[in-house]
Amino acid sequence: MHIDWAALGSVFGVSLGATVALVAVFTLGIVGLSHRERATAQGDSAPLALTGAYACFAACAAAVAYGIYLIVA
Amino acid sequence: MENFSLILAIVVITALAFDFTNGFHDTANAMATTISTGALKPKVAVAMSATLNLVGAFLSVEVANTISKGLVDESGIRPEVIFAALVGAILWNLVTWLVGLPSSSSHALMGGLIGATIASAGTGAVHGDVLVTKVLLPAIAAPIVAGLAAMLATRFSYALSRNAEGKAADKGFRVGQIASAGLVSLAHGTNDAQKTMGIITLALIAGGSIAPDSDPPTWVILSAGLAIAMGTYIGGWRIIRTMGKGLTDLRPQQGFAAQTSAAAVILASSHIGFSLSTTHAVSGSVMGAGLGRKGGVVRWSTATRMFVAWGLTLPAAALVGALAESVTDLGDWGTALVAVFLVASSAGIWLLSRRQVVDASNVNEIDEPAGVITTAIAAVTPPPPSVALSEGLTATILSPPVNPAPVVKSDPATPPAAAV
């Protein structure tokens, strides 16, 4: 019986890495947004937090686009 | 379409019926968590999933080709065998839907094929080691991989966002969840609609209607895509309820982690070539996300019932497939008998399901039978002023449904399964 442990292992590694990375980046974006929300509530502005948040979301959007590319290819 | 015999027509219709059950069985995979966390209203969620499934069906024919070209010896397979296999798969899908358990439609189809092949050509025609590497191992690996990824991602996400509260955070996670659920739907369309295309193409080749090694004809692609999309839109609400609410309680942040993990596992596995079942991956990631939050629980009794259903899927579908094949072997009247049996038992299962209806209006409630009171509560409850506020209510059983709004416009009495 031939079990492709290498393929199984890389599925495991890639899934784990991609999930944790994506969720972490997205969460950072959310943290940035809610930081700005609080700042706005106090009358401040938080341009850095907002820029960081948008950068995080752009990275996530790129990951989704790559996902769609994988589905189509 | 020369040579289009009656049996071929029956096989094509049965294959489309299987595709339909496949659709409503697997709506839960993409949309259960989206519905249970309130990121999307139930009807909107299934409509989105159905659309993406349809789009996905047109994206490629690669999976269909692996089924119709070379996997089975085309000269040795008769349309009756495929018919018997589909009967086994459809009945198992309907039974698991009735009891509200997510199970792999691909395993049901494989089981039906194996059973029908054994009945037709003997046990020698099935390779035991292929069974282990293609069926058994993935079924164990998928929930573990997806579950671990979802659990770690949830932990990490909660640790990072300790001081991210409020409207922006809540809304953000809902949007993220919708995006990853959309990705799962699209991947599902390309995978599962194509399985049916492959089966129909195989039957057409076996019946001599089209030449061997042909690509699926356009009408096959179109009808398979439409069948799975319709099934998805009808929605397997019983399974959605189990997956979204029965296994664990999810918040948007966990739902996002779960759906992202499922999407990553499905895409990685189909791309690297160790194919894993969507259902298994999503169930695992939902449980993992449930465990990842502090104080989160997994209802192991429900999970155990689900695992048992996974174990039974292949043998049960194989048994029905084998029985169906032995009856079709008796002649044309045998095939007719099996067809009548399929229609009658599907109707019977549907009638049984009407005793306790689960639909878009009560999909987010558990342990509360749908009845006059539920409908009354749903009817008098105004739409929540802010979806975010309803989150704290999910823990109490007697709370009104999180999403009562769709009840107002959708009549719960509409017979959804009329198309079966």
Overview of this structure, please?
The complex is a heterodimer of chains A (73) and B (420). Chain A has helices at residues 5-41, 47-72. Chain A is mainly α and 73 residues long. Chain A has one domain (16-72). The mean pLDDT of chain A is 84. Chain B is mostly helical and 420 residues long. Chain B has one domain. In chain B, α1 (6-36) crosses α8 (218-234) and α6 (128-160) packs parallel to α11. The interface between A and B is large, with 38 and 53 residues.
Give the count of helical stretches of chain A: 2
Largest interface: chains, residues each: A-B, 38 and 53 residues
* Number of helical segments with 4 or more residues of chain B: 15
Distance between the termini of chain A: 31 Å
Largest sheet of chain A: none
Mean residue pLDDT of chain A: 84
Average predicted local confidence, pLDDT of chain B: 78
Overall tally of domains of chain A:
1
**Strand share of the residues of chain B?**
under 5%
Fraction of residues in helix of chain A = over 70%
Shape of chain A: elongated
> What characteristic shape of chain B results from the CA principal axes?
elongated
Low-pLDDT runs of chain B: 368-420
Q: Supply the helix-strand structural class of chain A.
A: mainly alpha
SSE order of chain B:
HHHHHHHHHHHHHHH
Multimeric state: heterodimer
Largest sheet of chain B: none
Query: Would you count the extended β strands of chain A for me?
Result: 0
Unreliable stretches of chain A (pLDDT < 50, length at least 5) are none
Gyration radius from CA atoms of chain A, angstroms = 18 Å
- H/E topology pattern of chain A: HH
Secondary structure elements and their pairing?
The complex is a heterodimer of chains A (73) and B (420).
Chain A: H1 5-41, H2 47-72
Chain B: H1 6-36, H2 42-59, H3 62-68, H4 79-98, H5 105-121, H6 128-160, H7 167-206, H8 218-234, H9 237-246, H10 252-272, H11 278-292, H12 300-328, H13 332-353, H14 372-380, H15 405-409
